[in-house]
Every structure is written in C-alpha cells, then in structure tokens.
Amino acid sequence: LLQRPSADLAATICQVWDPAALKPVGPEFELRPPPAITELSADGARLLLHRDGGPILARDLASGKEMAGEGKLHSVRILETSADGRRILAVECPPRGKPDAEGELTPEGHLPRAAVHVLDARTLKPVVPRRMYEQRKRRPLFRLSPDGAQLLVGRDNELERFAVDDGRGIDSLPLAGLD
After folding, report:
1. What 3 state SS string does the chain have?
2. pLDDT of residue 94
3. CA angle 20–21–27, rounded 5-degree value
C-alpha cells in the first residue's frame, strides 16, 4: 500500500501494489479526511484504518465499501491483523498528560495506560472486552501471535505473553534492549 497526501492536504491518496509483480492492483482511491493510521488486512482484501475519535474502519478494496467497528478510540498507535487474518489488534496509547481510555490521569512524567482492543476481523466486534496495560517507562510493544490467540507485550526489558480470550498471563521472558 502506497500513500501520499492530496494536493489540498485534506485527503490521503492510496494505491495498492502487488509487490511480486511491482504493479498497481486496482485504481487509486482517496480517503477523506486522512486517517491517522492504516493497515492492510492479512489477505490484502481490506484496508483497516482509524481516524482519531472514531471507530476502526475496514474498507473493502474491491467494492470501496466501508464497515465500521464499535466505539470511539483515541491515539491508536498500533493497528494490525493476525497472520491468519482472523483478529485485529488496535492499541490506544495516549501521550503524557492525557487521560487513558478509562479517563484516569497518571502521575506527572508517566505514560497513561494503553488500552488494547482485539477485534474479530470479519465483524469488527470485540473478541474480548478492552484490557488496560501499564506503559511503565516507555511505550510497550504489542503484537498478536500468528493465530491471534496470544498477545505479546514487550516492556521494561521483559517480554510477556497473555491469552487473548481470558487475559491471563502465560509466561514472561527477560530481554535486553527494550527500555
């Protein structure tokens, strides 16, 4: 997916490319107003996007039709699909000094908690309720396992693994270089 601003800067012009053939797939299309974040679905058939204060959207690239998820999300910094294409991960990471998704403020100099949403890729409905994670010193790294059943959270020199369905911690591994 290649993106560029429109001449008036009020939209994003998108073009999907086949990386093997180095050729465009379908016509260019415009996203107005520009999204804050975009991600191509695992199968390449849909474009996931988010505009601050709105829901996660999925645009069918063949028809151009958009489907909206639930809720109003803010400061989405991570938007990705699991490798099997069944789940979507959306993470809200508010900047310092702003409240988290539950309206709580953190002490000065600390990052607000990150709100993690795992959605069904077909319906855009939550698979589980939103979960909050401490950001500690720096923004954590969040990734879904290939099957979307586990959430990996890297923070403060530790990689933690959680079960998506019930949020329980599975294990953790000390790592260097994350802080």
Report:
1. CEEEECCCCCCEEEECEECCCCEECCCCEEECCCCCEEEECCCCCEEEEECCCCCEEEEECCCCCEEECCCCCCCEEEEEECCCCCEEEEEECCCCCCCCCCCCCCCCCCCCCEEEEEEECCCCCECCCCEEECCCCCCCEEEECCCCCEEEEEECCEEEEEECCCCCEEEEEECCCCC
2. 86
3. 115
pTM as predicted? 0.86
Residue 137 has pLDDT above 70, yes or no: no
Residues 6+ apart with CB under 8 A from 16: 1, 2, 24, 25, 26, 40, 44, 47, 61
Give the separation between CA 107 and CA 1, rounded to whole angstroms.
39
| Summary mean pLDDT of the chain | 89
